[in-house]
Structures are given as structure tokens and as C-alpha cells.
């Protein structure tokens, strides 16, 4: 039940209140032996509600559920909302047709008397900003670069050192943004990508510039293990763009912490064009790279807002080859 309470707090925020279970003592023993109860209130709603979760596996029997609703309401004066950990789409549709309030945590909330029918997509769309979260951007880029048609959190966690929980959240965000769709039930859920061209066109508008901080260094800095990034990467990958004398490199925050700080210089002390720019990424760029360069999508995210027409042309040429 705690998972359901936390889920409702995330969805409704301060509009969600829990009530002291004063009615539980009034419920007959056969009910308390079969169900867990938790009384709640929603702001601006005079009706009291009670979450009802079966201790054993709950059968989706409409007549039985309706009978239980009447009995619970008669004892508690609170409208029952059934909690199901796992429901098939067909079962959810039957519950809705019969106007039986239910919650499937992290998936759907249906409370007909207050006109609430929130799917996971609608809930998540309220939460996400205009840009990807960090984990969602990494997941999006990884799926796009490798042309992966279907995946799940365990598969991704085996390839990239993020937790399964982190990937579950990232995948849910991509579903919310209509870049992925799901098949299967909760225990065997598979995430599938939409058409690759649409995946790119729809997803690129959510990409954020991965550069978090910029450091400047002289050529004495050991740049082994750093990935070539920015205009340096673009010029070397596209011969039509002249390479600048400045070298751009991408790094994780952890690697920068271990660099020789004596090689770093203040940008206001720079007197020549011969220096290195070390870009600290919000995510480890090596997670997505298979070469000495940052991945092409991260490169695009870096430079997509550049006013230099030559850079925009070079980016278009590079992406056309990939996609």
C-alpha cells in the first residue's frame, strides 16, 4: 500500500491527504482479513475515499466487486477505490465500463465520480519539462544510434551503467513523449520504438546541450581518454569545415576531478589561439561513443543552436549519412 500512497502523492501533490483510519474498527473481521484499507481525501472534494487492496490475488469479477463496494461503503461511508498491482488493458477497460474506481500504480487512475481518468502518459506529461531528463536523453541516443527496435530496463542496464530503476523512469518518459510504445504486461513489458525517421524527428526537439561546464587548458594537459567534441569533432568528420586551432574535448565530471589542475588556465589569461577546451558533460560521453569522438547525436545537441551557417550545413550532412 505504501507504493500506492507515494504514487498518489506524486500525481496529486498537496491535493492528496491521508486520513486516520477511524472506520477500520467498524469494518467486519472478514473484510480486514481479506483487504488492506487506507482512507484518503482529495482537496475540494467532500467525499471520503478508502483504498482497498486485496491481501491475496484479486479476481476481476464485476458482480463481486460491485457487491464489495456496497458493503465497504455501508460500513465506512467512504467510496472504495480498488488497488491492483497488475492489470491487462482489457481488464482496465471492463472496470471503466462498469464504473468501478481503481488504481494501478504507475499506470492508471480511474475515479468516475470526480471525473478522473488519468493514464500513465497523461500523468507523466504533466511532470516532464520541455527537454529530456539526463537518463532519457542517454536512452534516446542509445536506441537511435544502434537502431534498436525493442528493449527493456534490464537489457539497457546490461549495456550502460545506470540502474534498472533509472532506465524504467527513462523509458516511461519516452513513452510519455510518444517515442516508444509498450507491449506485454507489467512483468514482461517490452518497449518498442516508433518508425526510426519519426523517432528522430519527434525526439530531436527534446535534446538538450549536454555541456554543463567549460574548462580551459594548455597543451601540456594529458588528453588521453578524452573524446573529441564540438567544432573539432565536426571539422574532422566533415572535410568541408576547416579545423580550428582550438581543440575541443568532452569529459565526465569524474575524469575532470582527476586531471592535472596545473594545466588548467583562466580564460581571461588566454593570449593565443592554441589551447584546449574541456567540456564537462551532464552524462558520461563514453557511454554512447564507440570511437575517439563523441556520438553524433550528442554532437548535434551541442551545436544545433549555433548561428554559424557552415556548422549547420556540416551537421545536416553528417546526420543525413547516419539517419
Cα end-to-end separation: 46 Å
Number of domains: 3
The stretches of 5 or more residues where confidence is low (pLDDT under 50) are: none
Oligomer state equals single chain
Averaged pLDDT:
85
Task: Tell me the fraction of residues in β-strands, as a range.
Answer: 15-25%
Helical percentage: 25-40%
Largest sheet: 7 strands, mixed
Q: How do the strands line up in the largest sheet? A: 1-2-3-4-5-6-7
According to CATH, the fold-level topology of the largest domain is Trna Endonuclease, Chain: A, domain 1
Q: What letter string, H or E per element, gives the SSE order? A: HEHEEHEHEEEHHEHHEEHEEHEHEEHH
Annotation, overall tally of beta strands: 15
A few lines on this structure:
By secondary structure, the chain is α+β, with helices and mostly antiparallel strands. It is 38% helix and 20% strand. The chain has helices at 2-12, 29-34, 62-76, 89-97, 120-127, 134-145, 153-159, 164-176, 196-203, 230-237, 253-257, 296-303, 309-322, and strands at 16-18, 35-42, 48-54, 79-83, 102-104, 108-111, 116-119, 150-151, 180-183, 190-193, 211-217, 227-228, 247-251, 264-265, 276-281.
Structure report:
The protein is an alpha+beta fold. It is 38% helix and 20% strand. It has helices at 2-12, 29-34, 62-76, 89-97, 120-127, 134-145, 153-159, 164-176, 196-203, 230-237, 253-257, 296-303, 309-322; strands spanning 16-18, 35-42, 48-54, 79-83, 102-104, 108-111, 116-119, 150-151, 180-183, 190-193, 211-217, 227-228, 247-251, 264-265, 276-281. A 7-stranded mixed β-sheet has the order 1-2-3-4-5-6-7. It has a 5-stranded mixed β-sheet with strand order 12-13-15-11-14. A hairpin with a 6-residue loop joins strand 9 (180-183) and strand 10. Helix 5 (120-127) packs across helix 8, helix 6 (134-145) packs across helix 8 and helix 10 crosses helix 13 (309-322). The chain is elongated.
Amino acid at each position: 500500500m505504501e507504493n500506492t500512497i507515494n504514487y498518489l502523492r506524486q500525481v496529486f501533490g498537496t491535493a492528496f491527504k491521508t486520513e486516520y483510519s477511524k472506520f477500520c474498527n467498524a469494518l467486519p473481521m472478514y473484510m480486514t482479513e481479506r483487504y488492506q484499507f487506507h482512507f484518503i481525501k482529495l482537496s475540494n472534494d467532500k467525499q471520503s475515499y478508502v483504498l482497498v487492496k486485496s491481501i491475496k490475488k484479486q479476481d476481476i469479477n464485476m458482480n463481486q466487486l460491485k457487491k464489495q463496494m456496497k458493503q465497504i461503503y455501508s460500513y465506512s461511508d467512504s467510496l472504495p477505490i480498488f488497488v491492483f498491482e497488475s492489470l491487462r488493458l482489457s481488464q482496465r477497460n471492463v472496470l471503466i465500463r462498469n464504473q468501478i474506481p481503481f488504481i494501478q500504480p504507475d499506470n492508471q487512475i480511474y475515479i468516475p465520480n470526480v471525473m478522473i481518468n488519468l493514464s500513465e502518459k497523461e500523468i507523466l506529461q504533466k511532470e516532464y519539462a520541455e527537454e529530456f531528463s539526463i537518463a532519457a536523453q542517454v536512452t534516446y541516443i542509445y536506441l537511435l544510434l544502434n537502431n534498436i527496435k525493442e528493449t527493456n530496463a534490464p537489457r539497457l542496464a546490461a549495456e550502460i551503467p545506470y540502474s534498472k530503476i533509472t532506465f524504467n523512469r527513462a523509458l516511461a518518459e519516452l513513452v510519455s513523449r510518444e517515442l516508444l510504445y509498450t507491449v506485454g504486461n507489467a512483468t514482461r513489458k517490452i518497449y518498442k520504438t516508433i518508425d526510426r525517421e519519426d523517432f528522430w524527428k519527434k525526439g530531436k526537439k527534446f535534446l538538450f546541450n549536454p555541456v554543463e561546464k567549460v574548462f580551459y587548458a594548455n597543451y601540456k594537459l594529458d588528453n588521453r581518454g578524452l573524446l573529441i567534441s564540438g567544432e573539432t569533432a565536426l571539422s574532422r568528420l566533415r572535410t568541408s569545415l576547416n579545423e580550428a586551432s582550438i581543440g575541443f574535448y568532452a569529459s565526465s565530471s569524474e575524469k575532470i576531478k582527476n586531471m592535472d589542475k596545473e594545466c588548467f588556465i583562466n580564460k581571461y589569461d588566454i593570449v593565443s589561439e592554441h589551447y584546449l577546451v574541456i567540456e564537462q558533460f551532464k552524462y558520461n560521453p563514453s557511454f554512447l561513443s564507440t570511437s575517439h569522438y563523441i556520438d553524433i547525436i550528442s554532437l548535434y545537441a551541442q551545436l544545433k543552436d549555433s548561428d554559424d551557417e557552415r556548422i549547420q550545413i556540416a551537421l545536416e550532412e553528417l546526420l543525413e549519412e547516419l539517419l
